[in-house]
Amino acid sequence: WGASHPFSPIVSVKSFNLHSFYYGEGIDRTGVATKILSFNSSVKVTIDSPAPYFGIHVASSTFNLTFSALTLATGQVRSLTALLCYHLI
Questions:
Q1: How far is CA 41 from CA 1, 45, 67, 77, 79, in A?
Q2: DSSP secondary structure code for residue 4 in this structure
Q3: Could you tell me how many helices (H) and strands (E) the chain has, helices first?
Q4: Residue 33's pLDDT band (boundaries 50, 70, 90)?
Q5: Domain range spanning residue 43?
Q6: Residue 83 domain-assigned?
Q7: Does the structure show a pLDDT above 80 at 25?
Q8: pTM (predicted TM-score)
Q9: Furthest-apart CA atoms within the chain: distance in Å
C-alpha cells in the first residue's frame, strides 16, 4: 500500500523577477490610439514530491501569466530537474 499510495506534489513559486518593464501610449500611422506593454521576467517554481519511493515526471505545455482576464505573457519551462531523494537510515 505504501509504495502504490498516490502522493500529491507540493508546488510553490520561489521567486518572480521583473527584469524590464515598459508601458507606452501613442497613435499609430493610421491614427488609431495604441497602448503597448512590454516586459521581461522569470519565474522559479519548485515541485516537491513527498513520495518515499518514486520520483516525479513534470511536463508543461505552456505557462501563462494573467492579470484579470488578460494574458500578459506566455512561455514554456526552460529547464526541469526531477530527482528522487533517497533517505538512508
A1: 43, 13, 15, 13, 15
A2: T
A3: 0, 4
A4: very high
A5: 10-75
A6: no
A7: yes
A8: 0.51
A9: 72
